[in-house]
Amino acid sequence: MPLPLSAFSINLISDDLLLVASILVFFAIMTTKIGSRFGVPSLLLFLVLGMAVGADGLGLHFEDYELAETIGHFAMTIILFTGGLQTSISDIKPIRKQGILLSTLGVFLTCLLTGGFIYLVAGKTVGALGSSLMGCFLVAAVMASTDSATVFSLLHGKRLHLRHDLGPMLELESGSNDPMAYVLTILLVSFFSKADPETSAAALTIAGVLILALQLAIGYGVGVGVGHLTVWIINKVKLPGTSLYSILILSTAFLASGLASILSGNGLLALYVAAIIIGNKASIPGKKDVLKFFDGMTWLMQLLMFLMLGLLARPTQMPSMLVPAILVGLFMIFVARPVSVFACLLPFRKLPFKAKVLTSWVGLKGAGPILFALYPVVQGVEGASDIFNMVFLITLLSLLIQGMTLTPVAKWLGLSYEEDPPVETFGLELPEEMGMLRDHTVTEEDLQNGRTVRDMSFPHGIRLVMIKREERFLVPHGSMELLPGDHLMIIIGDSDD
User: Which of 160-169, 197-206, 222-231 bottoms out in mean pLDDT, i.e. has the lowest?
Assistant: First the structure.
């Protein structure tokens, strides 16, 4: 008896594509309610839903690895760019050294330790690639980075606020370590599939270091250039609508990525650096609406990417990789990640031991490693399908163990805290030079000296702009009577009187 969806095969010209996609997106969104109630990461549920309706589940076929890699790279562009736009330079400045070390040296150490473990312990169970040291390092390289989509989703989605600037540090690491892992993957695939067997390991290492340095240097340079150019354009050119600024800024992500790639640089790093510069230095009209646009795009990209990767998975082909995946996954969680984190953060003695422990725990895997695992498959590397299956299983393991316990572990270590409620601005946005918007709820104590606006006697530099009473918005005047529970929107800034 055929499976319910076995008649469908996803492709770009299928008449049923939009119907099937809309149904999957609808159910994926509904699963977020389950995730929020039981503490299950939404991204894990998206993966599981994709697997459930895939070829080994309900029978929906999707087997185009090249298309999946293209879509995944597009999605990663949006996710990384949004993360950069939302990154505050003032927040990352105190922890930039730690974040950069984790995203470069940390990825390299994780790859080195994991590759060695696979070669010495689990090599025979990994498949064709496990028989060579270079192949083991390739398996490790695709899994060496923490996933930006997963980290951003868990920190922002669960509104997890961490002490010691750990939140910005983890976001900086996850946003900037994908380029390092991707470059290592590309180099190892090239060496493994094309390198002359007689070429010495030293020569390969030197060539790899030079290419890596070139990729990172060009990527960073292009990102800085595109970022500052975009800032200049936004500050000089006035567009007729906020939506056009969103599209303009989005286009710069692809410009930075494409230009860096043409110049043999790393596109992911370029677009991330450009986004940080744009988000911090450009005077974007309606910036709050622009960020909401990118936030929605990010959710859509995460949803589609994890669903697609779930559809691509073949659970019936994974049992042979289950044992090595568990062995390698547990080694990465409890050995490779902690060792690399403590080694990178050793010079920073002021950072508490508990903070380093939590940083070690946030070695989350996600769509990034799975996408990197597609590259060897597309390039036709022998045994690459085993890498994909293994990385997929390790990602599931990471989301189950680390993703579901991140909030409890942070609380147990005493490193999380409740943030003050967001400021009510009634949808109004002002330039920073005009001052800070704040809201205040009127209490009976505030009204002891009188119940009118005039009686409030606001301190010098504070101006009352608007009053919200239940669902009504009122323009204040001196004789207006205030009531307990009224929300006052005030501006705090310089005054000339």
Answer: 197-206
User: Could you give the angle at which helices 267-281 and 166-176 cross, rounded to 10 degrees?
Assistant: 140
pLDDT in tens, 94-126: 888 999 899 989 999 999 999 999 888 766 666
Angle, nearest 10°, between helix axes 65-85 and 367-378?
140
Residue 159: closest CA among 354, 343, 410, 395: 410
Whole-model pTM?
A: 0.76
Percent of the chain as helix, strand, coil, to the nearest 5: 65, 5, 30
Q: Among candidates 85, 87, 74, which has minimal Cα distance to 301? A: 74
The CA distance from 460 to 439, in Å, is 17
**Residue 493: what pLDDT?**
65
Instruction: Give the three-class secondary structure for 463.
Output: strand
In this prediction, residue 14 has a pLDDT band, given cuts at 50, 70 and 90, of low
Q: What is the pLDDT of residues 412-439, one digit of tens each?
A: 999 887 655 555 555 555 555 556 677 7
Q: How confident is the model at residue 1 (pLDDT cuts 50, 70, 90)?
A: very low
- With both helix axes pointing from N to C terminus, report the angle between 353-361 and 337-344 in degrees, rounded to the nearest 10: 140
How many angstroms separate the CA atoms of 43 and 152, rounded?
11
Domains of the chain with CATH codes: 17-192+282-417 (1.20.1530.20), 432-492 (3.30.70.1450)
**pLDDT of 326 strictly over 70:** yes
Distance CA 338, CA 284 (A): 40
Comparing C-alpha atoms, which of 279, 395, 367, 291 is closest to residue 77? 367
**How many residues are recorded in the chain?**
497
| Beta bridge pairs of residue 492 | 436, 462
Q: Which DSSP state fits 434?
A: G
Q: Which stretch of DSSP H or E encloses residue 396?
A: helix 384-398
Q: Are 12 and 276 in contact (CB under 8 A)?
A: no
* Residue with tokens 């859509």, as numbered in its chain: 300
Looking at per-residue confidence, does 291 or 186 come out higher? 291
Q: How far is CA 256 from CA 147, 218, 276, 292, 387, in A?
A: 21, 11, 12, 22, 30
Instruction: Tell me which amino acid residue 232 is.
Output: W
Interacting residues of 55 by C-beta distance below 8 A, sequence separation 6+: 61, 62, 63, 311, 314
Burial 173-198, CB ≥16 within 10 A → b, else e: bbbbbbbbbbbbbbbbbebbeeeeee
Please choose, from the candidates 155, 113, 160, 152, the residue with its C-alpha nearest in 3D space to the C-alpha of residue 136: 113
Mean pLDDT of 269-276: 92
